[in-house]
């Protein structure tokens, strides 16, 4: 095995100056390479081949639940009411409808709502503002969440249609009392494959404590597509910690990264992160949205949305970037990234970094200022495949024009160092096409280590709202 350079055996780099605040933060900070290497060597020495036999008791639940027939009622002077009888076990009733427009698939209707409780022994959708005309055709489908005593199961009805008859409309106020909290307007956002109410705060993380039900603490070597010069470990208190009410990650080199991968994902919404970014040569924050299932292919073939990216180097720390990654090559990384500049370093203080992710546009913001509007072309981002020399993107044609950014994504927070995220330049100690890039980086430790005096990423909160 190749002998490690002496500088890899030195003790950790200096910790950042303490931030005087009564509030605590999630913090991420890189630490020394020797600690990381010893940690992984210990881990691999202890690896054994283990065979585990699990005896699993399988439970099969058979239910006779059938969605009851819906009653569709036209109201006067305007309005539409659709209802089903209350049956024990129903927990949610969702209505999706279109007027004179056929559904192509089980999608959100132009008329839709979630009903969370029955009224007068019926689960009722009611909108007094719908203006129907004689012989209009209402196309609709229903979705029911039913509890059988052990499990919640979602049922969907076949597509239905109803021809409007205004000869005997019902009065709008007929024995129906609408409750203010009984309905919500379904928006375009979904969480873990379920649609949610528009405007709802769907994630509110203030880091009062470590929430292992939401966050996965990454434990791995880095690799494709960025090949950053770190290994991620959650087991070092000098790298990853909660201080008061916030999260702190300190970064050859061990760093830390947490994500909601496998635990929580969403599609479309507004995400807001209040954070103080790390400073130091070749350090960068990882405030990303990554694809939950890589439907379109591995790595950047399924896209990445960058909420905030700032190089820690003093010469470039005043440039904030945000936007979308289409591929791992230079053109794919840069084409949909946008930037804004300020007179001093972005790492000097806390800022609120935001992305509004909508089916037709991705907006990038900082401190409530929009600095980028990214629109897909009519043909979709796949239009740029040849121009940007993108690979493995044919599957984008199967999605919407926003593909690959039309599938659920999860939140990633962390600190990266080096790798492919920095373009080649004179002052950079490695080249991205050099197979010994990491070694070249370590050989320049005398230059970059002295700049790592404020290398901590502080995250105050993460909030996400449904659209």
From TrEMBL:
<dbReference type="GO" id="GO:0030246">
    <property type="term" value="F:carbohydrate binding"/>
</dbReference>
<dbReference type="GO" id="GO:0045087">
    <property type="term" value="P:innate immune response"/>
</dbReference>
<keyword id="KW-0391">Immunity</keyword>
<comment type="similarity">
    <text>Belongs to the insect beta-1,3-glucan binding protein family.</text>
</comment>
<dbReference type="InterPro" id="IPR000757">
    <property type="entry name" value="Beta-glucanase-like"/>
</dbReference>
<dbReference type="InterPro" id="IPR043030">
    <property type="entry name" value="BGBP_N_sf"/>
</dbReference>
<dbReference type="InterPro" id="IPR013320">
    <property type="entry name" value="ConA-like_dom_sf"/>
</dbReference>
<dbReference type="Pfam" id="PF15886">
    <property type="entry name" value="CBM39"/>
</dbReference>
<dbReference type="GO" id="GO:0005975">
    <property type="term" value="P:carbohydrate metabolic process"/>
</dbReference>
<dbReference type="GO" id="GO:0004553">
    <property type="term" value="F:hydrolase activity, hydrolyzing O-glycosyl compounds"/>
</dbReference>
<dbReference type="InterPro" id="IPR031756">
    <property type="entry name" value="BGBP_N"/>
</dbReference>
<protein>
    <recommendedName>
        <fullName>Beta-1,3-glucan-binding protein</fullName>
    </recommendedName>
</protein>
<feature type="domain" description="CBM39">
    <location>
        <begin position="65"/>
        <end position="169"/>
    </location>
</feature>
<feature type="domain" description="GH16">
    <location>
        <begin position="163"/>
        <end position="467"/>
    </location>
</feature>
<dbReference type="InterPro" id="IPR050546">
    <property type="entry name" value="Glycosyl_Hydrlase_16"/>
</dbReference>
<keyword id="KW-0399">Innate immunity</keyword>
<dbReference type="Pfam" id="PF00722">
    <property type="entry name" value="Glyco_hydro_16"/>
</dbReference>
């Amino acid at each position: 095995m190749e002998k490690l350079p002496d500088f890899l055996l030195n003790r950790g780099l200096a910790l950042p100056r303490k931030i005087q605040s009564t509030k605590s933060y999630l913090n991420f900070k890189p630490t020394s390479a020797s600690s990381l290497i010893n940690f992984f060597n210990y881990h691999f020495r202890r690896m054994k081949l283990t065979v585990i036999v699990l005896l699993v008791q399988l439970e099969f639940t058979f239910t006779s639940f059938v969605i009851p027939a819906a009653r569709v009622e036209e109201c006067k002077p305007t309005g539409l009411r659709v209802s089903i009888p209350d049956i024990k076990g129903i927990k949610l009733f969702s209505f999706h409808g279109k007027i004179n427009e056929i559904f192509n698939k089980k999608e959100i209707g132009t008329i839709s709502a979630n009903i969370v409780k029955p009224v007068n022994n019926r689960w009722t959708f009611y909108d007094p503002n719908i203006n129907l005309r004689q012989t209009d055709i209402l196309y609709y489908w229903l979705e029911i969440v039913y509890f059988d005593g052990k499990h919640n199961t979602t049922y969907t009805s076949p597509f239905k249609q109803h021809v409007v008859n205004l000869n005997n409309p019902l009065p709008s106020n007929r024995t129906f009392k609408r409750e203010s909290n009984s309905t919500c307007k379904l928006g375009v956002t979904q969480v873990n494959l379920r649609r949610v109410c528009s405007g709802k705060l769907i994630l509110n993380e203030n880091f009062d404590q470590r929430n292992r039900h939401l966050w996965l603490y990454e434990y791995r070597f880095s690799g494709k597509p960025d090949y950053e010069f770190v290994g991620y470990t959650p087991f070092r208190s000098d790298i990853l910690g909660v201080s008061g009410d916030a999260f702190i990650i300190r970064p050859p080199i061990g760093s830390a990264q947490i994500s909601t991968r496998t635990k929580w994902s969403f599609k479309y919404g507004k995400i807001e992160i209040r954070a103080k970014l790390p400073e130091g040569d070749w350090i960068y924050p990882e405030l990303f949205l990554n694809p939950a299932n890589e439907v379109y292919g591995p790595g950047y073939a399924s896209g990445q949305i960058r909420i905030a990216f700032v190089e820690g180097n003093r010469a470039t720390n005043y440039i904030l970037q945000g936007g979308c990654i289409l591929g791992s090559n230079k053109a794919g990384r840069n084409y949909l990234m946008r930037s804004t500049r300020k007179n001093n370093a972005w790492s000097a203080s806390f800022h609120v970094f935001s992305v509004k992710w909508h089916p037709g546009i991705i907006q990038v913001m900082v401190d409530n200022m929009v600095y980028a509007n990214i629109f897909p072309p009519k043909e979709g981002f796949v239009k740029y495949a040849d121009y940007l020399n993108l690979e493995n993107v044919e599957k984008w044609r199967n999605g919407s024009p926003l593909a690959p950014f039309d599938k659920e994504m999860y939140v990633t927070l962390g600190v990266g160092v080096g790798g492919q995220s920095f373009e080649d330049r004179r002052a950079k100690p490695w080249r991205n096409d050099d197979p010994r890039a990491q070694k070249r980086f370590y050989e320049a430790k005398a230059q970059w280590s002295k700049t790592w005096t404020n290398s901590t990423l502080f995250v105050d909160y993460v909030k996400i709202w449904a659209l």
